[in-house]
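Notes from the pairing session

We agreed to fold both candidates in a single pass and log them together. This is the raw record for the first candidate, unedited. Please don't reformat it; downstream parsing expects exactly this layout.

Candidate A
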Amino acid sequence: MIGNNKMTLAPIVLFVYNRPWHTKKTIESLQKNELASESKLYIYSDEAKNEDERKSVDEVRAYVESISGFKKIIIIKREKNWGLANSIIDGVTKVINEYGKIIVLEDDLITSPYFLKFMNDALEFYQDRKDIFSITGFSFSEKFMNFPKGYSEDIYLNIRPMSWSWASWNDRWDGIDWEVKNFHSFVTDKNKVKAFNAGGTDLSRMLTLQMQGKLDSWYIRWSYHAFLKKQLTIYPRMSFVNNLGFDHSGVHSGYDKQNIYSHSELNFDSDFRFAKQIQVNNRIVNNFNKSFNIKLKTEVKVLIKRIMRLWQ
């Protein structure tokens, strides 16, 4: 636990589009965070892709204009449709370069009242540990994770970054090769592909789809950069975030009968401990990342669609 008296809080950046109900739930939970009134909130609203989405985009924009509860609210309305990947790359780059650190959310995430505290405290505590790439407030349920007996830490490390809430520093964000110029040398090296897929076998498939022009994902290129740099992500043992995107409103809905992604009990504990020298626990990493392993069966096409929706 770290006090916030002398800490400069990271700005929050929220990316929204055409889901009014989800956006409202995301902001309402964020407003209940104990550090909300002390935090700057940037909201990036993408322009409608077509006229069919005009009404819902306008509804989202009208709602975000009405909110309060933060130190300062800055709304950026795109004048054309950037797409999520380009909008995130541009928005994050501008804000993180100005402030040196950032907390990022998308419009389908419910947060605990202590989410901002966890993220800011972790940013402060681990800023000088250069092998830490990012921090997330999300985790699967403890039942799913099946932590090793005797594991007493409040956090764990993973080789796979997480986009369902994340925070990072500008020196980790700078230098990402968004064009993935070394893709050919990577994809033809079986050992490198295998190492990348230790974070889930969907990773190399997503990267391939990206390079084939069949996917436009900032996340997979961000994850690939973390892999190349051999950097790690901090996860809370108990999640400070729930994902609302599994409510039958997306193309992936209905695939999982028991959806592990949406069944994490929110952490309402404000007292958590960080360990400076914490290292990767392979059993925990395997438990987490196995949920992203693609099996070569008839469900592959369905799973690919789900992954494309999740990680764009």
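Candidate B (folded immediately after A)
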Amino acid sequence: MLKNKLLYTAKKEFWEYKNILFILPVVLASLFILLPIISVVTHDYAMDRIFKLAQHVSAQGTHLNFSNFYSAAASFFAAPLLAISFFVQLFYLISCMYDERRDLSIMFWRSMPVADIWQVAMKFLVGVLVIPVIFMLSATAVYLVFYTIALIGSVIFAVGYDISLWHVWFDFGFIKAIANAFYMILPTVLWLLPLFAWLLLASAFAKK
């Protein structure tokens, strides 16, 4: 029964804030994918650099260590999205309680069979942990899209230019890089926990 109540409360939060919890991450991820692709397609020198890089990687063979590259790539995609998610967290926590008091929707939600403590706990969980996880999932999606594009590029180089890059795909450092990026969310959240708690408290009592 408690599980159903918590699930209902979570659905309510996602329904109320779908713009920042779903639409914004999807739009940002789409821009992170489309803008580099457009930049590469419209600039010949970018294609030349990619071709030279493929030749270099192929010549080096298995002597190259890609773990640092995968970590840097994960950070490149995750850092800006997580920075944006921080401001989204601030916006959500400072407004979630105030908005319900302002439009009196709190009267409706309090009539539901869910205790106030669970309502507040769910808002705090969404603001503190769920939002950065959602944005991190967006960064992971961008990462995997470019990983797939690179894999397709390897096929093209192998078939059309006799440049073998298959040894790259036997290094699964990208999985560790993604896992480390998710892991870093937890200590960051714990470090900022007092700030997040204060914002939620202010949202509950602020007059404007």
